[in-house]
Write a structure and sequence with these properties.
It is built from six helices and ten strands. By secondary structure, the chain is of the alpha/beta class. The strands form two sheets. It has an eight-stranded mixed β-sheet with strand order 3-2-1-4-5-6-7-10, with helices on one face. A two-stranded antiparallel ribbon has the order 8-9. It binds 5-O-phosphono-beta-D-ribofuranosylamine (GRF).
Length: 221
C-alpha cells in the first residue's frame, strides 16, 4: 500500500466506550494534524467505541482476544491487521489487554498508552480510589511509550488536577478524564511530528519544537 500523505498512519486500540479515541479522532480530523487515524480495532466485539468510529467515517473492526489459539495467536492476528494497513503508530485508548513482550518489542517506540494516574504512581487498576485512599492532593493522567512491564515507559505528557476534599473516585475520575482528552492529542501530535528523542526514560522535544506537550496543570480545589 502506498500513500502520498506525510501524516503518520495511526491505529487506535480500544476495549470499551472510547472517549479518548473520540478526542484523538477530533484532533486528527484537522488535515494539518501530523497523524491520521486509519483504523480502530477493539479486542471486544460490540465495544461501543467501534460504532462511534464507524459513525466518524473510520474503519473499525474487532479482533476478538477469545478467538482460537490463545494470547500469542490473538497478538499475531492484531499485528497482521496493523501491518496490512501499513500502520506506523498505535495508540492504546482504554485497551484492557496486557500485551506480551513479543508485541511490545515489535512496536517499540511506536506504541503509546494513556494511564489515568501520574506514573510511576498508581500503576494498574482503580487509580482514582487508590489516590484518594492515599490522601493525594494532586492526581492526573500520563501518556507514555509502552514497555513490556505494565504501565512503564518514557513519559510523553502528563496532566494534573487538584484533589478536592469531597471528591469520590467518580468525581475525581471525571476531572482526570477531561485532562486525558486534552493531553492525548498533544502527545500524539509530538510523536507523529517526530520532533523528539527518547533518552532512556526521558522524552526530549527537539529544540524549538512548538508542539511540546510538557505538563498540563488544571487548577481547582
Ligand atoms: C481511560 O481512563 C484510560 O486512561 C484508561 O481507560 C479509560 C478508557 O476510557 N486506560 P475511554 O474508553 O477512553 O473512554
Amino acid at each position: 500500500m502506498t500513500t502520498t500523505s506525510s501524516r503518520r498512519r495511526t491505529a487506535i486500540l480500544v476495549s470499551g466506550r472510547g472517549s479518548n479515541m473520540t478526542a484523538l479522532l477530533a484532533a486528527a480530523a484537522d488535515p494539518a494534524f501530523p497523524a491520521r487515524i486509519d483504523v480502530v480495532i477493539a479486542n471486544v466485539p460490540g465495544a461501543p467505541a467501534l460504532e462511534k468510529a464507524t459513525a466518524a467515517g473510520i474503519e473499525a473492526l474487532a479482533v476478538d482476544h477469545r478467538g482460537p489459539g490463545g494470547r500469542k495467536a490473538f497478538e499475531e492476528r492484531l499485528d497482521a491487521e496493523l501491518r496490512a494497513r501499513d500502520i506506523e503508530l498505535i495508540c492504546l485508548a482504554g485497551f484492557m489487554r496486557i500485551l506480551t513482550p513479543w508485541f511490545v518489542d515489535r512496536w517499540k517506540d511506536r506504541l503509546i498508552n494513556i494511564h489515568p494516574a501520574l506514573l510511576p504512581a498508581f500503576k494498574g487498576l482503580d487509580t482514582h480510589a487508590r489516590a484518594l485512599a492515599e490522601g493525594c492532593r494532586i492526581h492526573g493522567a500520563t501518556v507514555h511509550f509502552v514497555r513490556s512491564e505494565m504501565d512503564t515507559g518514557p513519559v510523553i505528557a502528563q496532566g494534573a488536577v487538584a484533589v478536592r476534599q469531597d471528591d469520590t473516585p467518580e468525581t475525581l475520575g471525571a476531572r482526570v478524564l477531561a485532562v486525558e482528552h486534552a493531553i492525548y492529542p498533544q502527545a500524539l501530535r509530538l510523536v507523529a511530528s517526530g520532533a523528539y528523542e527518547i533518552n532512556d526514560m526521558r522524552v526530549c522535544a527537539s529544540e524549538g519544537e512548538s508542539t511540546t506537550p510538557a505538563a498540563l496543570i488544571v487548577p481547582g480545589g
